[in-house]
Amino acid sequence: MKRILAVVLILLAYSSTLASAEIRPYVYEPTVPDTAFAVLAMYKVGEYEKVLEGCEWLMAIRTPFDSWGYAYGEDHEAKYTAMAIMALIRGESVARGRYGDVINSAAYWLIYKQNPDGSWDDYIDTALAAVALKEVLQSKYLNTEMPGLREQLKKGLNRAIGWLELNGPQNDEERIFRDIALGDKNDLKGLKMEGELEAYRAFALAYLGEKVSLSEDFSTPMATAMALYATGEERYKEKLMEMEHFGFWGKLHYRVLDLLDVSRIKGFEELRGTACPYLEEIPLTEEWQKAVYAHYYLLCSRRPELPENYTSLLPWQVAEVARVKALLNKPYSGEVEYLITNSENGSWGDFYNTAYVVWVLKDLNVSYDYEKPLSYLSENLTWMLSEKNPETGDPLYYSTPTYYFSQAAVVFKQFGMNGELNVTLNVLRERQYPNGAFSYTHQSVTGITTTASILWNLQTAGLDNTDLYKRGVDFLRRVLYADLPEIGQEVQNATFLMIKGGTYAGNSTGRVNPNGLDGYVMIYPSDNPLTIKAVEVGGFTAESPWAQEKTEYVRVVIVIAGLFLAMYAVIWIENRKRS
After folding, report:
1. Membrane-crossing residues (predicted)?
2. 509: helix, coil or strand?
3. 86 φ, ψ to 5°?
4. Is the domain of 40 the same as that of 153?
5. Which domain holds residue 80?
6. Tens place of pLDDT per residue across the chain (579 aa)
7. Domain endpoint, select from 252, 278, 305
């Protein structure tokens, strides 16, 4: 995903050349389980353009060995490679000739990685690898010109099935995927599942040919895709469509709290719509978490759970509780009294805590003698900048976090302390890199969290017209947003895949002639794509990908036929004896 995000910065260099470009948040990354199972579901309900989009994303994030990890750049594993194989088999039936080589290469990779006992790295690896090998063998897309490949896949499948029959699952998820591999419908029917595992069970039964109904809603793309595959219901399809991002399904690339921090900056408010649904997944088990995370709940228009015991909180956290209560129109006198009572000669422990408490008290119009804390902040600022670390020889302020200074800048602006304000702004200038991001400490790592915190303080202080602020905003926009062109038949730096008569008919760069095509797939940009979009012209169609019936069905027919032959033989022998 690093290469996908890095291209955002490159695109901005020539974004002015894009026709009808749209700047959109780009904060998700494709994952193999979500995208692969979405492809399976979309294929089953006939949404072939979504099948092609998902398959092209899988092609884009595969390893050089035609294998897959959970996401781009992660270690390849059998389970994820198996999922991708199953998805690409469906895609190949819509665009014959596009994915066949990768399907065969990936199947060979599975055999190469199989352990001598027939397993792969873990139980689900083994179960899904068995399912994928079975599909390749049953499909029309097995390359018969690769010497010995069919026999190798058969042997690998038989060894995997044997291992699964000898080794039981340790949990329900393993059991479901084992039942798919072994075709054990009866075991699946007897399982009682809750939550997303109910979608897994429904998918497994539907995959084995059973009719299934579901009433639950599911929160992840993978579970929603399984529910759609199992039921074909429109509500699941609509939800899965909503979960698609630029042609793929996946997860947030950034931390939820990072995005919410950025959403406090003017012009980035729309990120709340992306991040807020994930907020409740963050557990609040400690009192300090309730204080620190409270403002995130306010950003998401939700009522926060506030701490009741302040003895374990830092002074700035108690001040934050007071600030949040004020925003909720709740009394906060208890928090103010606690802070004033626990001050130490006009300060609250250290530079940052004192700056934060003073800002909140002043913002709440609390009547207080601010002279001592302001003197403390001024004197400590001078001390940090003038004194040196005896061990390193560096100024003490080199190791002080940047947000300490930006918080102090808010206070100095509040009280008209222009000399101290200018000093802190100079420190911020030192800490801002050429790309606009702020470092955590002097010449250290940078990132979204630190930059968003500094910008929030500058914005709070009314310093959003400064070059510091504007450059920081530009950094966030470059990292979190992408210029994406309007989908059309002519797009600079795009590759168009042409599908005609159910067959991949080649590609073109920059433009496409749609005449006579089933449709085309636009990949933008050509290298390291940001968005992939399939466009129907005459309409995409799909052939059956299977060269033979499902193995479970064949086994049943053979068993029944064998029983009839055995019965016939017994009757014939008995008749011969009587005669």
Report:
1. 553-573
2. strand
3. -60, -40
4. yes
5. 30-252
6. 444 444 443 343 333 334 445 678 899 999 999 999 999 999 999 999 999 999 999 999 999 999 999 999 999 999 999 999 999 999 999 999 999 999 999 999 999 999 999 999 999 999 999 999 999 999 999 999 988 999 999 999 999 999 999 999 999 999 999 999 999 999 999 999 999 999 999 999 999 999 999 999 999 999 999 999 999 999 999 999 999 999 999 999 999 999 999 999 999 999 999 999 999 889 899 999 999 999 999 999 999 999 989 999 999 999 999 999 999 999 999 999 999 999 998 899 999 999 999 999 999 999 999 999 999 999 999 999 999 999 999 999 999 999 999 999 999 999 999 999 999 999 999 999 999 999 999 999 998 999 999 999 999 999 999 999 999 999 999 999 998 999 999 999 999 999 999 999 999 999 999 999 999 999 999 999 999 999 999 999 999 999 965 544 334 333 433 443 344 344 444 444 444
7. 252
Write the DSSP symbol of residue 465. T
Indicate if 48 and 138 belong to the same structural domain: yes
Q: Are residues 186 and 150 in the same domain?
A: yes
Q: Tell me the CB-side half-sphere exposure of residue 369, using CA atoms within 13 A.
A: 5
**55 contacts 91 by C-beta, under 8 angstroms:** yes
Q: Within this chain, do residues 162 and 288 fall inside the same structural domain, yes or no?
A: no
Domain count, the chain: 3
Name the domain boundary from 217, 252, 287. 252
| 53 belongs to a structural domain | yes
- 231 and 315, same domain (yes or no): no
| Antiparallel, parallel or unpaired: β 531-536 and 519-524 | antiparallel
Cα–Cα distance list, 313 to 55, 339, 343, 348 (Å): 50, 11, 14, 12
- With respect to residue 404, please indicate whether it lies within any of the assigned structural domains: yes
- What is the H or E stretch that residue 132 is in? helix 123-138
CATH number at residue 49: 1.50.10.20
Asked, for residue 529, whether it belongs to a domain, the answer is no
Q: Please tell me whether residues 205 and 305 are part of one structural domain.
A: no
Provide the b/e sequence for 411-421 (b: ≥16 CB within 10 Å): bbbbeebeebb
Q: What pTM was estimated for this model as a whole?
A: 0.84
495 falls within a domain: no
Q: Does one domain contain both 284 and 221?
A: no
